[in-house]
Design a protein that fits this description.
4-stranded antiparallel sheet; Alpha-Beta Plaits; 3 domains; 48% helix; 446 residues; elongated; Trigger factor, domain 2; 5-stranded antiparallel sheet; single chain; Chitinase A, domain 3; alpha+beta
């Protein structure tokens, strides 16, 4: 029987010795001959029944040994991984010895393999964490009604200056305040409610007091975390042209409104719906907070040794993701680094912590799943596909295409496994609930 021995394990490279038994060597030769016999038509022999000595003579011993040798090297790696309980990772095996092969003789290989590091998880069942949870109060219910009212608000054009609580329709362009170059931050026919939650900081002040047909230019510091990396953190000159000014007529939540517009039985039923919806939202948020806190604690306390080459490989992946994102915006990583005044080395260094965290998350999820037999079922994949259809508006045909894409399926498997593993850990911890009251002013500030 073939066997393997671990010689050393450093920097996530396992140096192993693998002994392939004569029986396994012979089995690989016979498998090769059987496969070749199906491919050749040799007079005097039925297809698939050509003797090995005839095939060896026709193909050539050197070619036979070369092909079987490749098969045996792959087999040696599989034996080493299985016997030594090693998990391979991306990388090329380095062979230290490749014995001359022959049929039915024992072979000894030495090879170094890139492998995943060993992982020791903390005992998360002993974790005690405090998780904040919002209590549903009248202020939350009022804010919920306000958000719902926004969907039914009527915009009535008015001859007046813009004001807090009113709406405007405008278009804008921008230039870099330092270079004067036009930037991609622009918009046509933008509807904007002054004073609404989620507006860019400072814009309400700049847009208040304008009339239809007026133009205004102001200097603005873009937020560092703005989605478009080409303008994030930049100082811009914003040129705004106001097309129209509106009064907003928000509906009142009367019995008539909820029955006609919301198709509900009564105002009482609507209020019950609001309370139930908010309770569900706060419960979902509480569960997410719990899972986030547990995962943070697990990653902080787990023991593993991540080598520099693993981090560098992950940084390469993150850089590719950034490049793809920038190209979707019509830019490139070189242009972004030039605008930020940053060189490639500095940018790679800035990604190191993110890369290490992603690797640790992957290792933790994989270890929890392995220890607790967490698997992805067909039903899990179906539910995941249905969720994508709801969240991203995908059609059945698009989902089917994704299910036929191996890379996407692997990513979906990992995401499902990750969700299951994190949920499993969160269910084990001792939780102290920190109940908080919703404060509208505080929520707006955040």
């Amino acid at each position: 029987m073939s066997d393997a021995t671990l010689i050393s394990r450093e920097n996530n490279i396992a140096h192993i010795q693998v002994l392939i038994s004569a029986e396994d060597v012979g089995r690989h030769y016979r498998s090769f001959y059987k496969d070749m016999a199906k491919r050749f038509n040799i007079p005097g022999f039925r297809k698939g029944k050509v003797p090995s000595n005839v095939l060896r003579q026709k193909i050539g011993k050197e070619t036979v040994d070369e092909n079987v040798g490749s098969m045996l090297k792959d087999f040696a790696i599989q034996v080493g991984l299985r016997k030594l309980n090693l998990i391979p990772r991306a990388g090329t095996p380095q062979w230290h010895s490749e014995p001359e092969i022959n049929e039915d003789i024992e072979l000894n290989y030495e090879v170094s393999l890139p492998v995943l590091p060993e992982v020791k998880l903390p005992d998360f069942s002993k974790f005690e964490i405090t998780v904040p949870k919002l209590n549903v109060n009248d202020a939350m219910k009022d804010r919920y009604r306000e958000r719902l009212a926004e969907r039914f608000t009527e915009w009535e054009e008015a001859e007046k200056v813009s004001e807090i609580g009113g709406g405007i329709l405008f278009h804008f362009t921008s230039t870099n305040a330092e270079t004067g170059d036009e930037t991609p931050f622009k918009h046509n026919e933008m509807r904007y409610v002054i004073g609404r939650e989620g507006n860019l900081p400072g814009w309400d002040t700049e847009l208040t007091g304008l009339k239809a047909g007026e133009e205004k230019t102001f200097e603005y510091d873009m937020p560092e975390n703005f989605a478009d990396l080409r303008v994030a953190g930049k100082k811009l000159n914003i040129k705004v042209n106001v097309d129209k000014v509106f009064d907003l007529n928000e509906p009142e939540f009367t019995e008539e409104f909820v029955t006609e517009k919301l198709r509900m039985e009564s105002l009482e039923k609507f209020n019950e719906f609001v309370t139930e919806s908010l309770n569900q939202e706060t419960e979902i948020q509480f569960e997410q907070n719990k899972q986030d806190l547990v995962m943070q604690k697990v990653l902080a306390e787990m023991e593993t040794d991540i080598s520099d080459d693993m981090i560098n490989d992950e940084i390469d992946g993150l850089m590719q993701e950034n490049e793809q994102t920038l190209r979707r915006y019509g830019s490139s990583l070189d242009e972004y680094l030039k605008e930020k005044g940053q060189d490639l080395k500095e940018f790679r260094e800035s990604l190191a912590d993110t890369a290490e965290r992603k690797i640790k998350l992957f290792l933790a999820v994989r270890e929890v799943a392995a220890q607790n037999n967490i698997q992805v079922t067909n039903q899990d994949m179906q539910n995941f596909a249905l969720r994508l259809m709801r969240e991203q508006g995908l059609e059945v045909e698009q989902i089917q295409q994704l299910l036929n894409n191996r890379d996407w399926v692997n990513q979906a498997h990992y995401q499902i496994t990750s969700e299951k593993a994190v949920r499993f850990m969160a269910d084990q911890v001792v939780v102290d609930v920190d109940e908080k009251e919703y404060d509208e002013a505080e929520a707006s500030a955040e």
